[in-house]
Structures are given as structure tokens and as C-alpha cells.
Write a sequence for this structure.
């Protein structure tokens, strides 16, 4: 049965609007101020004071500029804390995001070309091929992808490979790198269709990778292989470590066993039972590197683990849907911050599972939890280190309400030593493979 909108209905709708005494006031407010400003609840804002019972010192906030590398910035921000505490480097010390970005884009390009070959016998209009071609590569990523890069290439201080125009404003590079990858996809699919030899395909792909390496070097700079690590500590003492490799630098100065840190998600949808592990088909960057793997837990369990980690002086990498009920300028994320349903006199409610199932929400941004306010043993709000510079929030730090965390946080990275014995057993399971377009495969 189909039903078009008729004039009688329009008349009823207009009459209903006319009967509302406050409709003109609301119309003037919304049309001039916008939906968010007109529905903002200032009482909610007053409860989000940036005061926390547990508050880690994590240094000056970094700035990803006009790029989508939040997952990378967040991860490197968690890793620099060891240097700050052990070697007393300056609060504005940063690890090179550009170095990791270079290898991420190079590895993602290879990962894409491999997936092109794996799907070369499928028609172009198949959902998998269509999904693959929509975005051959992008700035975003997940924790396990960052670990795969560091395990292979190590890490360097920002001084060894600083930012460039294209790392800070990634739009042009992404456009032409994706154009190059789609061009190469055409050639590889044609070779497969023509039944070219494996040797011919491998030689062609190697030529493609050589050209991509050249593009990335021109845009991002030549990746450091050996460098001098030179700095003055907070006590003004001079230090220099000469001719060190990225792998040596990571082992000596960062000194984290990345295998100890695992991804835990909260996805309360029917297709993902809790206490099971999941991976996502065609999601990754380093071929044969560390795979993406998530253990799905109830949110109450995730929060317990995050608090344990914070109490032990370790920050927490997390992924969320940052655009939901969030005021960037003020640095507040709170489900009570805006009340658009009251403004429009309609029901806008969805459960967390419904938001995931009906494409209303997914992970869009990664940040770092550096504190929590515990009142009578329960969290009320959380301190968040963002990567948007110091001009937003409180010098770049945000306040996240506990209810906002419940509703819009999807992923935590936790050291395995905080997991229970049962959670460790569950985390060791072989993962269930999800479709490439599953929301848990979203890149922050």
C-alpha cells in the first residue's frame, strides 16, 4: 500500500502548528540560532566542571590539524607518557605522527591492492567490490592497525620526521592516492581477467608500489631510518642518543609490549553476543601483520577495567562517536547537553543497539581518557585528552559525562593484566568474522 501526501493532511499539519502557543517563539529561536544553541541545557553544562578525583599528567595537547589521524595521535599520546615520566622530556614532546602516517598509507595501499586481487573475480557491482572501491585508503584506523605498524617499523620522535603540508592537510594526498589506487585496481582486475601469470601480476604490483612510495615521499618526506635523539630534560640536562633506528628507539624509550594491550568493545546488538571476539573482513593495513580483534563486553565491565588502568597511572585509548551531544568549543560531551526532542516536541530516542543497527551512530573519533571523577566509588565524569589543539575545551582537554560514555563510546584499549581470568580466556578465542561494512569496522 502506498499513500501520497494530500492537501487535507497538509491543512491538518498546519492547523496543529497554529494551535501551539509557543510555535512562533520556537521558530524564531531555531531559525536564527540553530538547533543546538536553541536546545542547549545550561544546567547540564554546570555539572561538567573539569575536576577529577583521578587526574593523570599527560603533557601538552597535540593537534592533528586538517587530517583524520586521531587514532594515531591518541595512541602516540598514550605512548609518550613513559618518556615524559622516565626521561623527563618536555611537556610538549611528541612522537612523530607523520612517520607512522607514511607507513600507514604505504601499507594500506598494499593491503588494498591485495584485496583487489582477492576480489578480482567478483563483479564490479558486488557489495564487497563496491565497498572496496568507495574508499581505497583513508586517514583513519584502529588500535591494532597502529600496533601492526609499530611492530614492523618502530617509532621516532617528531624531530626525526616532522609534519608536512600534506600530513596536516591530508585532503589533496588522499584524493590523488585514491585515484592512483583505483587506476591500479583497473589494471590488476584486467590482468586477472586475462589470466595473466602470477609472476606478471606480482611484477605489475611491485611497480605500482614503487610509484606509490615515490608519491608518499614527495608528499610526506623520506621516512627516517637512523637519527639522533637529542633533547634537554626538565632539569636542563642535555642528552643525545646517536645513530638510533626507529625500532631501537621504540624498544628503549617507549618500552611497551604491545601484545599486552587488547581492544575491548561495547556493541549491544543481537548479532554480537557479549564475551565473544570479533574481527572484520578486509580491515587492516599491514598484510600478515597484527589483525584487528575485539572482545565484546558489557559497558559496566569496560568501565571497571578503565578505572583500574587509570588508578595504576595509565591512560586509556578509546573510540567514540564524538559528534553526538558534544560541544567542541566548550569541550563537553554529555547526553543532557542538548534536548532537541523537547524543542521539536517529538520522540528522538534510540537505544545504543538501535543506533548501531540503523546507521545513526558508529565510532568516528579516538581520544585518550586521562582521568575520572569517582563519587562514592562510582564514575560521574571522565577527563579526555583530545588531539584538536589547545583552543578547544580546557587547553584541549574535554569532560565526558558517564552517561555519554555509556551511550557513545564503543572501544577501549586495556592492558591484559587488568582483565579477569575469564575475560582472558574469552579474549583468546578465535574471532568471529564480521562483514566489511559492520559498524565495529569503522575507522576513527
Amino acid at each position: 500500500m502506498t499513500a501520497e501526501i494530500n492537501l487535507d493532511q497538509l491543512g491538518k499539519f498546519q492547523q496543529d502548528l497554529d494551535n501551539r502557543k509557543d510555535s512562533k517563539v520556537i521558530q524564531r529561536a531555531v531559525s536564527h540560532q540553530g538547533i543546538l544553541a536553541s536546545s542547549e541545557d545550561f544546567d547540564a553544562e554546570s555539572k561538567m566542571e573539569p575536576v577529577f578525583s583521578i587526574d593523570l599528567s599527560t603533557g601538552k595537547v597535540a593537534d592533528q590539524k586538517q587530517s583524520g589521524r586521531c587514532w594515531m595521535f591518541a595512541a602516540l599520546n598514550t605512548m609518550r607518557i613513559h618518556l615524559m615520566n622516565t626521561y623527563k622530556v618536555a611537556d610538549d614532546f611528541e612522537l612523530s605522527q607523520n612517520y607512522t602516517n607514511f607507513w600507514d598509507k604505504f601499507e594500506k595501499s598494499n593491503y588494498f591492492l591485495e584485496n583487489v586481487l582477492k576480489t578480482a573475480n567478483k563483479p564490479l557491482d558486488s557489495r564487497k567490490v563496491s565497498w572496496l572501491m568507495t574508499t581505497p585508503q583513508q586517514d583513519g584506523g584502529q588500535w591494532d592497525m597502529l600496533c601492526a605498524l609499530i611492530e614492523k617499523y618502530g617509532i621516532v620522535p617528531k624531530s626525526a620526521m616532522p609534519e608536512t603540508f600534506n600530513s596536516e592537510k591530508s585532503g589533496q594526498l588522499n584524493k590523488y592516492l585514491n585515484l592512483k589506487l583505483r587506476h591500479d585496481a583497473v589494471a590488476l582486475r584486467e590482468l586477472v581477467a586475462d589470466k595473466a601469470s602470477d609472476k606478471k601480476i606480482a611484477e605489475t604490483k611491485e611497480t605500482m608500489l614503487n610509484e606509490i612510495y615515490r608519491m608518499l615521499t614527495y608528499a610526506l618526506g623520506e621516512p627516517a631510518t637512523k637519527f639522533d635523539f637529542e633533547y634537554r630534560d626538565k632539569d636542563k640536562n642535555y642528552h643525545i642518543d646517536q645513530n638510533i633506528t626507529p625500532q631501537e628507539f621504540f624498544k628503549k624509550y617507549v618500552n611497551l609490549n604491545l601484545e599486552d594491550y587488547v581492544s575491548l568493545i561495547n556493541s549491544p546488538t543481537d548479532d554480537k553476543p557479549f564475551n565473544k571476539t570479533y574481527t572484520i573482513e578486509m580491515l587492516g593495513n599491514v598484510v600478515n601483520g597484527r589483525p584487528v580483534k575485539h572482545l565484546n563486553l558489557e559497558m559496566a565491565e569496560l568501565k571497571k577495567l578503565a578505572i583500574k588502568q587509570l588508578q595504576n597511572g595509565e591512560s586509556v585509548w578509546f573510540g567514540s562517536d564524538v559528534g553526538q551531544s558534544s560541544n567542541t568549543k566548550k569541550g563537553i560531551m554529555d547526553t543532557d547537553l542538548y534536548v532537541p526532542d523537547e524543542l521539536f516536541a517529538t520522540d528522538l530516542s534510540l537505544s545504543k543497539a538501535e543506533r548501531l543497527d540503523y546507521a545513526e551512530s558508529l565510532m568516528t573519533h579516538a581520544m585518550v581518557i586521562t582521568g575520572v571523577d569517582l563519587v562514592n566509588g562510582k564514575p560521574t565524569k571522565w577527563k579526555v585528552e583530545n588531539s584538536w589543539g589547545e583552543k578547544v575545551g580546557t587547553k584541549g582537554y574535554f569532560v565526558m559525562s558517564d552517561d555519554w560514555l555509556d551511550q557513545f563510546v564503543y572501544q577501549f584499549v586495556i592492558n591484559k593484566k587488568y582483565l579477569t581470568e575469564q575475560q582472558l580466556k574469552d579474549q583468546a578465542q578465535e574471532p568471529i568474522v564480521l562483514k566489511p561494512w559492520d559498524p565495529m569496522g569503522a575507522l576513527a
